[in-house]
Amino acid sequence: MVKAIRMTETGGPEVLQLVEVEQQKPGPGEVLIEQKAIGLNFIDIYMRSGLYPVNLPFTPGSEGAGVVLEVGEGVEIFKPGDRVAYCAGNGGAYSEQRVINAGKVVHVPDNISFEQAAAMILKGLTAWFLLRRTYRVQPGDTILYHAAAGGVGLLFGQWANHLGATVIGTAGSPEKMELAKAHGFHHVINYREENFVERVREITGGKMCNVVYDSVGKDTFPGSLDCLRPLGMFVSFGQSSGVVPPFSVSLLQQKGSLFVTRPVLFHYIADREALDTAAGELFDVVGKGIVKVVVNQQYKLADAGKAQDDLAQRRTSGTTILIP
Fold it and tell me: Residue limits of the Enoyl reductase (ER) domain (predicted)?
């Protein structure tokens, strides 16, 4: 038996209960992992609350790192004892052990700790597909990223700075503004006290941004569109404040023939080659010290509800992990 967080209904943090469950053996194409650290993400809250439908009973969690205990039939690229990490969109991470499709797992280099790997694999791959695939950031680009002091934001800022962009962020407190500035952001706007559209206009001398990355949603729309120059791209990849309201596509023409996309990481890493390329580029920039991964908060697995509540109430900054 192993301990895992289970929910039998959707709702608030109180629906997350620590229980003992029987651990299954890995089937064909699967691996069994003893988890050393588990990542915490907003998608976990979306699933817990019912915003993203799940089949109950359900164990949340999208990323983790640990050691392979067993491999199923047909698995050749992993063996017991391998250091690995994974990200998956179907939950299951909030557990001492888990079985997962080997196609979602990657090898972790020796110079990356389990805590770093669990804290960054989903967030880091998110930063990767935003910066290198959805809109390929080039030297000289001016970009805006909302929630700059969040887990993805702190990785994103360092990476975008390294790529030669002028990186503008938004944050909700002086402390978070300073944190973002320490992680690659050249300019940080306090969205609680300033009009971020006007500040972007001031910072850019009226030229505005090539691309806006927005995981906030309702509260930052349509202001994010107003921060774009003609032919700019609005990348909506989350909705921490609520969904973006419906709008007419003619609005994009009116604001400068803008592009809009709602990308999902798992479409960008759907096969082994794409996943290995993404993870390789991520581990490379982290291993070289270009992107530093710092775990700002740790909670016991049993305290997953409190961890999620602190994240939802924006009492955390940067990356947070659960320790089984």
Answer: 11-322
